Amino acid sequence: MKRQTERYPVKTANSLWQVYKTVPFFKVVKNFIVIQTARYTPFLSLKNRLYRTFLRMDVGDQAAVALMVMLDVMYPERISIGKNTVIGYNTTILAHEYLIDEYRLGDVRIGDNVMIGANTTILPGVTIGDGAIVSAATLVHKNVPAGAFVGGNPMQVLREPEGTAPGTPPAEERE
């Protein structure tokens, strides 16, 4: 299944030149300060409290966001992280993308008990199902089925969830 994003065309210069027409400047400044503070905070409970309180993110109990994780600075409230999930070192999670002739926004939903390896990039509009494993350095550009093991650039399903019949097309092709 393709990513679920809202598309907003622009008529003049590329969409990044119009960034402060799409998101308030002081919201970005506040989010940047909170995110940068959290990136270097070694205390997971404090980090999660910062995300919940100042960024309005939905973060599950015992979620562990490693050092240097970079959350979307403009729309972090569109990111949700399930309980007991691990987000690996230096991962980037985006809820927006600014292109030449449009910008796109999309919620990122990361399920419960998910493991995301270091240096992964997650694009807007993606859902990662419960119990999924994302290998290090993966570009997550489409939904990840619950219980699947995925990796690579472009991302591929390396192991289907248990209970999937052999020869069954990947989940995104079945929908």
Describe this structure in words.
This protein is of the alpha/beta class and 175 residues long. The chain has one domain (19-159): Hexapeptide repeat proteins (UDP N-Acetylglucosamine Acyltransferase, domain 1, 3 Solenoid). The protein is 20% helix and 25% strand. It is built from four helices and 17 strands. The strands form four sheets. It has a six-stranded mixed sheet. A hairpin with a 4-residue loop joins strand 16 (149-151) and strand 17 (156-159). The longest helix is centred in the N-terminal third of the chain and has 15 residues, at 25-39. It starts with 5 loop residues before the first strand and ends with a helix. The mean pLDDT is 93.
Shape from CA axes? Answer: globular
Q: CATH homologous superfamily?
A: Hexapeptide repeat proteins
Name given to the CATH architecture: 3 Solenoid
- Count of strand segments: 17
What is the helical fraction, as a range of percent?
A: 10-25%
Give the strand line-up of the largest sheet. Answer: 3-6-11-14-16-17
Q: What pattern of helices and strands is seen along the backbone?
A: EHHHEEEEEEEEEEEEEEEEH
Which spans have pLDDT < 50 for at least 5 consecutive residues? none
Determine Rg (CA atoms, Å).
Answer: 16 Å
**Range of strand content:** 25-35%
Largest sheet: 6 strands, mixed
Q: Helical region count?
A: 4
- Average pLDDT metric: 93
Per the CATH scheme, the topology name is UDP N-Acetylglucosamine Acyltransferase, domain 1
Number of domains: 1
Overall SS class: alpha/beta
InterPro entries: Hexapep (IPR001451), Trans_hexapeptide_repeat (IPR050179), Trimer_LpxA-like_sf (IPR011004)
Region (Disordered): 155-175
Protein name: Acetyltransferase
Keywords: Transferase
